[in-house]
Amino acid sequence: xxxxxxxxxxxxxxxxxxxxxxxxxxxxxxxxxxxxxxxxxxxxxxxxxxxxxxxxxxxxxxxxxxxxxxxxxxxxxxxxxxxxxxxxxxxxxxxxxxxxxxxxxxxxxxxxxxxxxxxxxxxxxxxxxxxxxxx
Length: 135
Known about the structure:
By secondary structure, the chain is mainly alpha-helical. The protein contains 4 helices and no strands.
């Protein structure tokens, strides 16, 4: 269940983390380029850090004392972004390894095919019939 129609929980989480990765003073400019309002972003931030986004729960209290501090939010966002970047790098390395193994597999297949061609017995000369001489 999503807290905003048209957005999945993963998309909401990605928007919130990308918002927190923006440098100081650039967040509002970045937010104006997105298809969401600042009030929607505030609600999403509360759901991601203080509520349970996957269940669609948003904390009811609006006081600053009950919410997660900005430094902790940014640290969590940086940590998750770093994990995602490490995951993406690992996926890229594994994809490169797969391409390398597929190329070597193809080369080995061609080499085996050539060996089979070379090992096939070629037809020899036509045998001559040795007929006994007529007497």
